[in-house]
Amino acid sequence: MSRIASVLLPMPLPEAFDYAEPEGMELAVGDQVAAPLGPRLLRGVVVALREAAGGNRPLKAIESKLDSPPLPPGAIEFVQWAARYSVDAPGQPLAIAIRGARAPKAKPEKVIEVTGVQPGRSTPARLKVLEAAAGQRLSPADLARAAGVSAGVIKGLVDEGALALTLIEADTRFDAPDLARKGHELNPSQAAAAAALVAMVGEGGFNVALLDGVTGSGKTEVYLEAVAAALARDPVAQVLVMLPEIALTQAVIARFVERFGVMPAEWHSDIAPPMRRKVWDAVATGGCRIVIGARSALFLPFAKLGLIVVDEEHDGSYKQDEGFIYQARDLSVARGKIEGAGVILASATPSLESLRNAEIGRYRWLKLTSRHGVARLPEITLIDLKDTPPETGRWLSPPLVKAMIETLAAGEQTLLFLNRRGYAPLVLCKACGERMTSPDTDSWLVEHRYSNRLVCHLTGFSMPKPDKCPHCGAQDSLTSIGPGVERVEEEARMLFPQARVAVFSSDTVWDAKEARRLVDSMAEGEIDILVATQAAAKGHNFPKLTLVGVVDADLGLRGGDLRASERTYQLLAQATGRAGRRDRPGRALLQTYAPEHAVMQALKAQDRDAFVEAEMAEREIMKLPPFGRLGAIVVSGPDAQALEAFVRLMAEAAPNADGVEVYGPADAPLSLIRGRRRKRFLIRADRTVDLSAYLATWRARIRPPGAIRVSIDVDPYSFL
Ligand code: ADP
Q: Which residues contact residue 215 at a Cβ distance below 8 angstroms, ignoring those fewer than 6 apart?
């Protein structure tokens, strides 16, 4: 009897499609196949197989089984779970999960081998080549270099049969970690935390621990021990370590190389396709035991996942806000549960969600309260910009400049932190007051001086900076308002012409290599003043960095959303936490107009617990996360009236449920993007409510007309 295969396709389709299994194909669940959809052939994954009952209408047949490792059961279950949780089509997370499988394989490599055949005549150059080629396989170019000869010499030897050119398949495995190596000697509190984590790993199965340690306490050293234990406990177990920034990935990889003597697999947007494919295949077949990556690494097809570490777990970049919307930290706990793996969430400033789970005993809570060795937490001073403002047109106040002078004189480094890319966040016309905005989008254009362009950070639109106002035509009337990192750099160069100044933002650091270069040169002391956005403000260890200046500490508070205070506290605690991480004491100066704000006071007093307690109390009263749950629905469309009519219908269709409140529809704060108007609903639910099911029910009741899009965000972090 023939069988029917349910195949999940990486498309926004509501469910898997049925296909007939061709005679003799012998499919299994997890297999990757080519299946027809309309006129196209798509790569899909078999998620179920059943015997065909007679009498059904004939199904289209699967075209072929693909030569790729199957998706392991845990990965399939995770994809389906994530889709249900996020109220999205399962094909969306599947597309992320099989992205690596779709990348082209590395081409076979050409290498030269010695055949033993004597060449017709022996010249010194030829002898050098034969000597260099003996016992190893080098590419023709490498061999020419090693022997110091031209390519022609090698070609001659190949032509005469003394050397043979062979193609070898690229290596598909990663070197096994050396578990006999020891880590650094741990201090007593690190040792206690490490022992607890090792014990958790030793128990096996699903468990979550929150590794809550101040900046510089050595959390990486501690979780490295848990990683070693997980790898040692089961010879095929795999470990995933997630990090929020590519720049940080580079630094942590170096520590893994030091600890385990091998290069772990790396996974993020900047990995070249053949390497992506190598990692994917190796992860699926057990040929790779350690993966260090960004949030999408959570969707890799681990054959046997033993431990997940989410470093800097509070970080906002774990949330993906576009396409398939998910929060990788939260999903890591779900994946751990599905795989029966341990999960370690590490941070100096954990999210309130994780702290709450630790408080009620759902997570084990391990604390490191002091820095390792002689390093002390930096002294934090608030600079009230009302009392000591910078000079007109400048952004660094006199007390901060004075501290920079002292730091430079001592041969130490300064980090100026400003979480804003570009030169100026706003450009306006002095003559008519016109603000330069993005076309069809409710957003200002940001001036970038390196490229001399005005850029929309929301849509990517950019244009050369005009020399007259496009509105009134006045010549040279466009003025830059406010600072971005480029402008602070300009000021730092002007104040300290002899200092070595660099900028670290996603505009100056565009790939992993550049990130590593800049991080290394900062660590080597080749930079005196680093002006950085959050891309460089977390995780790093710069031994000679003793001063952190926060240019605009109030920046993150202005949006005023649910997490504004929490996020600002986390970001500034991380940024200031870069100072004084070795033997030299550090200090941090925060420029603010609101020194009395609870966030500033908590930072100054280094009293995180009091801040968390106050913030928790407020959230508890409002029944907001972590005491309640939130969902957001953004509805967008090109036509304002049609949109308005549709959101009204939608509001009427909202299911009634106990413990759920629906707010809206209201104009979204960003009410126009790329010509599409946007409306929002906000849904608050008690923790006992299955919010995903509620939202799915709601969505099933309405059918948006063609031009209107409905996007659901469970546990939203962005309220724009
Ligand atoms: P965290 O992640 O908690 O901010 P790290 O793990 O990056 O801290 O450690 C901070 C610095 O202290 C690093 O340079 C690290 O190598 C060093 N360090 C921490 N613990 C030890 C230890 N037990 N022995 C030697 N160096 C340590």
A: 348, 371, 377, 573, 574, 577, 578, 581
Check if CATH label 3.40.50.300 holds for domain 188-368.
yes
pLDDT band at 122 (very low <50, low <70, confident <90, very high): confident
What distance in angstroms lies between residue 375's CA and the mean position of ligand 1's atoms?
A: 10
**Residue 184 CB less than 6 A away from ligand 1:** yes
Among protein residues, the one whose CA lies closest to atom 9 of ligand 1? 218
Question: What interhelical angle do 398-409 and 485-495 show, nearest 10?
Answer: 60
Tell me: the pLDDT tens digits for 403-437?
999 999 999 999 999 999 999 999 999 999 999 99
Tell whether the model's pLDDT for residue 515 goes beyond 70. Answer: yes
533 band by pLDDT with thresholds 50, 70 and 90? very high
Does ligand 1 come within 6 angstroms of the Cβ of 221?
yes
Check residues 1 and 302 and name the one with the higher pLDDT: 302
* Ligand 1 within 6 A of CB of 216: yes
Q: How many CA atoms lie within 13 A of 604 on its CB side?
A: 17
Scored b (16 or more CB within 10 A) or e, 280-318 reads: bbbbbebbbbbbbbbbbbbbbbbbbbbbbbbbbbbbbeb
Distance 7 CA to ligand 1 centre (A): 47
* Alpha helices (H) along 115-234: 124-133, 140-147, 151-159, 188-203, 219-233
Q: Is the CB of 480 under 6 A from ligand 1?
A: no
Who's near 391: CB < 8 A, 6+ residues apart? none
Q: Give me ligand 1 centre to Cα 677, in Å.
A: 49
- What distance in angstroms lies between residue 195's CA and the mean position of ligand 1's atoms? 17
- Residue 141 confidence (pLDDT): 87
Determine which residue's CA is closest to atom 17 belonging to ligand 1. 218
The whole-number pLDDT of residue 55 equals: 66
Query: What's the pTM value of the predicted model, to 2 decimals?
Result: 0.89
Q: Is residue 27 within 8 Å of 46, Cβ to Cβ? A: yes
Q: How far is the CA of 251 from the centre of ligand 1 (A)?
A: 12
3-state secondary structure (DSSP) of residue 277 = helix
370 lines ligand 1 (CB under 6 A): no
How far is the centre of ligand 1, averaged over its atoms, from the C-alpha of 530 (Å)? 22
Residue 232 near residue 179, CB atoms below 8 Å: yes
Residue ID of nearest Cα to ligand 1 atom 23: 186
- Give the residues across from 168 on adjacent strands: 109
Between CA 590 and CA 596, with CA 594 as vertex, the angle to 5 degrees is 100
pLDDT at res. 118: 87
pLDDT tens digit string along 102-119?
999 888 888 888 898 888
Distance (Å) from CA 482 to ligand 1 centroid = 37
d(CA 282, CA 288): 5
Report CA(263)–ligand 1 centroid distance (Å).
20
* CATH code linked to domain 628-714: 3.30.70.600
pLDDT in tens, 325-354: 999 999 999 999 999 999 999 999 999 999
Tell me the CA–centroid distance for residue 220 and ligand 1, in Å.
Answer: 7
DSSP lists the bridge partners of residue 429 as 478
Task: Give the model confidence (pLDDT) of 598-643 as tens digits.
Answer: 999 999 999 999 999 999 999 999 999 999 999 999 999 999 999 9
Right CATH number for 3-98 from 3.40.50.2300, 3.40.50.720, 3.40.1440.60, 3.30.70.970?
3.40.1440.60
Class of domain 379-420+483-616: alpha beta
Helix (H) or strand (E) holding 359: helix 352-359
Instruction: Give the residue, out of 212, 255, 347, 372, with the most ligand 1 atoms within 8 A of its beta carbon, to mutate for a pocket test.
Output: 372
Task: Tell me the HSE value of 364 on the side-chain side, using a 13 A CA sphere.
Answer: 18
Higher pLDDT, 671 or 336: 336
Mutational pocket test of ligand 1: of 224, 241, 310, 541, the residue with most ligand atoms within 8 Å of the beta carbon: 541
